[in-house]
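Example record

The entry below shows one chain as it appears in the dataset: sequence first, then structure tokens.
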Amino acid sequence: MATNPATSRPLNYFISMKYHLFAILLALCTSFLSASELSDSAGGTLQVYTESMPELHKIYPALRPTRQGRPHRERHAYQPSFTTHTHYTSILTAVASFSFPFPASVPALPENHRKERPLYMSLKTNLLYDALAVPNIGVEFYIGKNWSINANWMYGWWDTNRRHRYWRIYGGDIAARWWFGTKAHAKPLTGHHIGLYAGIVTYDFEWGGKGYMGGLPHKTLWDRCNAMVGIEYGYSMPVSKRLNIDFTIGIGYLGGKYLEYVPCGKSYLWQSTHTLHWFGPTKAEISLVWLIGKENHNSTGQ
């Protein structure tokens, strides 16, 4: 019975490729078992030596080595030179040289090599506000590449109602700072810095006479606050192993509404409402800074 050449050719090709793939798979398994070492890379590079190649001859006779140019199919000492089908051996060697993941064979990284990013942060208080009886606190985080985020908050709500004396203020600001200079490159949060800041503040000042209230009375902070935005420059100077003194001045805009009033018996008489537009210094700090972090310390005092 005659066969159709167009039909038998793919079938013969499939059968031939099946044996070729089988030969390659067995060769790879034999090569992996005979590999001598794994490298230190994450996947482990399998190094295949030519001593494993004779196993190929058991499944692919055409790859048997030759002696003086003549094929030998009987047993003899292996000679690592091929005169036929060199393209097959090149493919097998290249495939077997690829990196494969072997999690159980890769040694764990020692603990001392797992170095995490050190923490650089600071807590601070503005001594100028402290001297004016306005408690305050600030925190700063170093985020990398000479950049940090700084935030401050103050709250002082003092009054002596019998004498109509009020000293009230609270609010805060947040700033993004860029550090530069020799000391800033040597250690974060030290040396020169410039930045942009924005903040809110509300107040009520009266000393036995006319008073000034920032914002609207009996409202939330957002309704009665004045807002500010500006650019700042400062310098943080080491004074001990864990302490710095930070000098900062900010210039920008402060705006919002404020009220004028006068005390009248037990009440307060509203006089007028004004809109504040101020361009000039809006921030001043002489801050005592406490450095926090295992590596966040100065060389002074060590």
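Notes for this example: The chain has a mean pLDDT of 75. The longest strand covers residues 267-292.
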